[in-house]
Design brief:
Length: 1033
């Protein structure tokens, strides 16, 4: 089995096993070949359904449900199957400059290897950096003994380190706690060059350093003997003797220090704004193979013209390399991120439902791929050639249609499966369990009524809410009421089931105290229609809080609760979801009992991974049982201390469920937050009991799957449920050579049960380009998708490998990808220049942010449960969510337009962007802060809080009062629109600068040094640049 190119040294690099771990290090193997087993290609095994009957009985008699064709489909340019296989890359659709990439002149570091001590003042006059050595990636917890720059502003041409006569750096110490105890023996980089500023230069169309005039060829201009020289607009800072972390005794005599202008390194907010300006508000028609969609952050309208909307499928690159060798050489991961139930905005067409009646969908006889726009009809329309396996199939008589002069079927526009990228088929009985029609799913609410939940007021709050919430259960489109059945269980050490049959005047409770052999004591009356049993259910919900009001019981069970839910669904022969509201670690004597195994001493050791491992045994089996039954588990946790989320979250993680956590829950401060989450969760669009299969054309295939899935074999992805926010990241690998001419096709087919109990197939198709030119691949990369892939692979890898190795691999691969671009695609330039592909110019900032996330940071200050929680959450995230998580929105509020709906443009996530006289919102999809500077304008404070000044604001305020002032209306509107857009609710935290809580806020300023370790963006970029240079020499 090969290394799959992840860590293998490319031809140009010198393996340096010791220092940076290039080459397969002892621990890199597992993560290194994240593609899983390499297997010989064989015809795919039979698909999820049986073979289609070759003898359809009713020719022509299969109506399509819904108007298959709408005007809007016709209005686009004719798309035609012929275009699908046409030349790669529709020129006009190709975003981004053809070439060039981003150039950042200036060696971040001067010399190459400098084993010597960090520079003290006296050494500053020598060649500043003759060979520094860094023993690890900057974030790996080593102490950066020097900032990239001295601390002054430098916006002009950078200085070549080796030409610098002045002190290259101030010897500042990274003040974040070291993470992995690595020591960097030299300054990370000296004289990091920098002006990487400004908009793309006109020349190459890439992101080019403005300092590079025609007269200044790439590279460092000669310096005038000292650090800094003439920088346009550069602010010279004076010596900074008191620079925090300066080396003891090293007085910073000598030339003033300069700090690299942060505006000179690629800006995520700028990239987002530019894409919005260029492609925002436009219609994105999907009729071009290998077309790169707008960024996830851009507002655009999708028109399906033969490829799935990017809302459903996004790729790390839209041009696959033709060979495995090329893929290995560039190390750019090939993957697609599929969100099968992504919400389609109101102005886009919902998926059409195709019904072929009893024959079921048309499929390829050999590989079972479903009819789609890529199938080629031949022989006058009597046969079609499969785009995936090339098998030639007979067209069933009822499906026959003549071809037009272009070789296209005459009914092309009338059939979604011939002209669209995404659509649904009605599934026949053959696609149902045991050949029996599916039934509508059930939602079971399982409430921990132990002391903690009663005392906090949670139980009462929840029961009150359910009375209205259950009116909003998801329903089939057009249906009057929801078909979903509901059931109720309360529990502590024992379980209470409720009979809420509509005929009853009072609900009846049945107790099961033997939790070792879980069974459901009643069938009839447990799962009911809410509409029919409303009165009895309300009666029950009124009684529950009082029934347990005086409880002293603090012990709970957990696994038996899930078991009970699955058994109930089994008995009812339906799929469904368990909503479990649980407070504490389950210590009562029962299967799945847990104990506190939190151990901070393991942090930063080889055993740290065990903190993320679920306890084996009971929960593994439960996951299997749940998936087999189509039972998803959503867990709402209300802990006051450790409760082993790694284990408790294991079943949700394998069943497409989610884990929500409200530490030290109090109704007053967290109630609304919890209820918003609950409402979203109960109401969201969802499918159950799903099997997903990704088929590909010959030459490559799907090898690995990440996120909320369960795999019994290597191809069928089982999902107990999949909702509108749930994304599965699929890794792709070569098993042969791909053809530039034919391109590459993917088809994701998801068989599932609707909320109305119908069995359906949802099909998403996507066509990609193939090229033997790496440049084409880099031009078609998508940074947001890449980072989603890296996040999921890294979060899986930490189950097996030390964090330090995982972080090193991430940095190494970043450097490899960029070095490969530099070597093969960029125009010749001085080695000192950092040149990034245009499509990946902000990749380093996301990567650095990823490495600073709680799961990847070895810090004893972080809660083990929080780390495990974040790990599980990210595994099922889509591209939008990982992008936002890794680069939060920082929205200035102090100078916004108060009228209108415009939201101020976000700023870069750095302390530098804050101002004492300002107010800022920061959100990342999970946390939401309102930060108020000490000198925040009084009229803003007055407008938002009706208080004369900031000093009057009570600490721990976490609501914005509803005031009738323009400021209040505007800020509340922004907050509520953010809440609406995000999958999760967020708890607003109001923080004044210099408050204690501020530290919580600052950890989200991801361009800065990490609070718990991890480099600043600038330092990271310098470090990566240095690695690239090493690879290139
Ligand atoms: Zn086929």
């Amino acid at each position: 089995m090969s290394q799959q190119g992840y860590v293998a040294a490319p031809p140009y690099s010198q393996a340096q096993p010791g220092a940076m771990g290039y080459g397969p290090g002892p621990n890199q193997h597992t993560y290194g070949h994240y593609g899983g087993q390499q297997q010989a290609f064989s015809p795919p095994p039979p698909g999820m359904g049986p073979q289609m009957s070759p003898h359809p009985s009713t020719p022509g008699g299969m109506p399509m449900t819904g108007p298959p064709m709408a005007g809007h489909q016709m209005s686009g340019p004719p798309m035609g199957a012929s275009q699908m296989s046409g030349p790669p890359m529709g020129g006009p659709q190709m975003p981004g400059p053809p070439m060039g990439g981003s150039q950042m002149p200036g060696p971040p570091m001067g010399g190459s290897q400098m084993p010597g001590p960090p520079m003290g003042g006296s050494q500053m006059t020598g060649p500043p950096m003759a060979g520094q050595q860094m023993s690890g990636p900057p974030m790996a917890g080593q102490q950066m003994s020097g900032p990239p720059m001295g601390g002054a502003q430098m916006s002009g041409p950078p200085m070549g380190g080796h030409q610098m006569a002045g002190p290259p750096m101030a010897g500042q110490q990274m003040s974040g706690p070291p993470m992995a105890g690595q020591q960097m023996s030299g300054p990370p980089m000296a004289g990091m060059g920098g002006p990487y500023a400004g908009p793309p230069g006109p020349g190459l169309g890439g992101y080019q350093q403005p300092g590079l005039g025609p007269n200044s060829p790439s590279g460092y201009p000669q310096q005038q003997g000292q650090f800094g020289g003439q920088m346009a607009g550069g602010q010279m800072a004076g010596p900074q003797p008191g620079f925090p972390g300066a080396f003891p005794g090293s007085a910073m005599a000598g030339p003033p220090q300069k700090k690299l202008d942060p505006d000179s390194i690629p800006s995520p907010t700028q990239v987002i704004e530019d894409d919005q300006a260029k492609r925002g508000g436009q219609v994105y028609a999907t009729n071009v193979r290998g077309q790169v969609p707008p960024l996830v952050t851009t507002d655009f309208t999708v028109q399906d013209q033969g490829n799935a909307s990017p809302r459903f499928m996004r790729c790390t690159t839209y041009t696959l390399p033709c060979t495995a060798e090329l893929a290995k050489q560039c190390q750019v991961p090939l993957a697609t991120i599929i969100k099968p139930f992504a919400v389609v905005p109101k102005n886009e067409t919902p998926l059409y439902l195709v019904n072929h009646g009893e024959t079921g969908p048309i499929r390829c006889n050999r590989c079972k791929a479903y009819m789609c726009p890529y199938m080629q009809f031949i022989d006058g329309g009597r046969r079609f050639q499969c785009a995936f396996c090339n098998c030639v199939n007979e067209v069933p008589v009822f499906y026959f249609q003549h071809l037009d002069h272009m070789g296209r079927r005459m009914d092309f526009y009338e059939r979604p499966e011939l002209s669209l990228g995404s659509y649904e088929f009605s599934a026949t009985l053959d696609y149902c369990k045991n050949n029996k029609p599916a039934s509508a799913p059930a939602y079971i609410f399982m409430i921990d009524v132990s002391f903690t939940n009663i005392k906090s007021g949670l139980v009462r709050l929840l029961c009150d809410e359910l009375k209205t919430l259950l009116d909003n259960l998801p329903r089939e489109e057009g249906a009057e009421s929801s078909a979903i059945k509901v059931g109720f269980v309360t529990y502590n050490k024992i379980l209470h089931f409720y009979n809420v049959k509509s005929a009853l005047a009072q609900p009846q409770m049945m107790v099961v105290s033997d939790t070792a052999e879980m069974f459901v004591p009643l069938l009839d009356g447990f799962l009911v229609s809410y509409a029919e049993s409303r009165a009895v259910i309300h009666n029950l919900l009124d009684q529950i809080p009082d029934m347990f009001a005086d409880t002293n019981e603090s012990e709970t069970v957990f696994a038996p609760v899930i078991q009970a839910g699955v058994e109930a669904l089994k008995a009812a022969e339906c799929s469904g979801k368990l909503f479990i509201f649980h407070a504490s670690i389950p210590t009562a004597e029962a299967p799945g009992k847990l104990k506190n195994r939190d151990d901070k001493k393991l942090v930063s050791t080889d055993k740290e991974k065990t903190l993320f491992h679920p306890v084996k045994g009971v929960y593994e089996q439960l996951s299997k049982d749940c998936v087999a039954q189509g039972c998803s588990v959503d867990l709402f946790l209300f802990p006051s201390q450790y409760l082993d989320i790694a284990t408790m979250g294991d079943v949700p993680a394998h069943t497409g469920g989610a884990v929500y956590k409200y530490s030290n829950f109090q109704v007053e401060t967290d109630g609304e937050h919890f209820l918003r989450d609950l409402r979203k969760d109960v109401e969201k669009p969802i499918g159950f009991d799903a099997i997903m299969r990704v088929r590909t054309s010959t030459g490559f295939r799907a090898t690995d799957f990440f996120g909320g899935v369960y795999m019994n074999n290597t191809t069928d992805v089982e999902l107990a449920a999949v909702d509108c926010d749930h994304a599965i990241t699929v890794e792709l690998k070569h098993d042969d050579t791909l053809s530039e001419e034919t391109g590459a096709f993917m088809q994701c087919a998801l068989l599932y049960t609707t909320v109305g109990g119908q069995r359906r197939l949802r099909v998403h198709n996507l066509s990609l380009n193939c090229s033997s030119q790496l440049m084409e691949l880099f031009k078609s990369c998508e940074t947001d998708s890449l980072i989603n892939f890296f996040a999921k692979t890294a979060y899986r890898a930490i189950l097996k490998q030390p964090l330090k190795s995982v972080r090193e691999i991430l940095v190494n691969q970043t450097a490899h990808m960029l070095a490969c671009y530099r070597k093969n695609c960029a125009s010749p330039s001085a080695a000192s220049q950092l040149i990034l592909p245009e499509t990946m110019k902000v990749f380093p900032v996301y990567m650095n942010s990823l490495m600073k996330t709680a799961p990847l940071v070895g810090s004893t200050e972080l809660s083990t449960d929080d780390r495990a929680h974040q790990r599980l959450a990210v595994m099922a995230m889509g591209v939008e969510d990982t992008q936002l998580l890794l680069y939060p929105r920082l929205i200035p509020l102090h100078n916004m337009e108060l009228e209108g709906e415009a939201v101020p443009s976000p700023l870069r996530c750095s302390e530098d962007r804050l101002s004492d006289g300002g107010a800022f919102l920061l959100e990342n999809g999970h946390a939401l802060f309102l930060w108020l500077g000490q000198a925040c304008p009084p009229e803003l404070i007055q407008g938002l809080f009706n208080l004369p000044s900031l000093a009057h604001l009570q600490p721990n305020t976490n609501v914005l009062p509803e005031l009738d002032s323009p400021q209040s209306r505007k800020v509340r509107a922004i907050v509520s629109s953010l809440m609406q857009q995000r999958p999760n609710s967020m708890k607003l935290q109001i923080v004044r600068s210099k408050d204690k809580l501020e530290v919580l806020f600052r950890q989200f300023l991801v361009e800065d040094k990490g609070l718990y370790g991890g480099a600043s963006y600038m330092d990271f970029l310098c470090y990566v640049h240095r690695e690239i240079r090493t690879l290139l020499t």
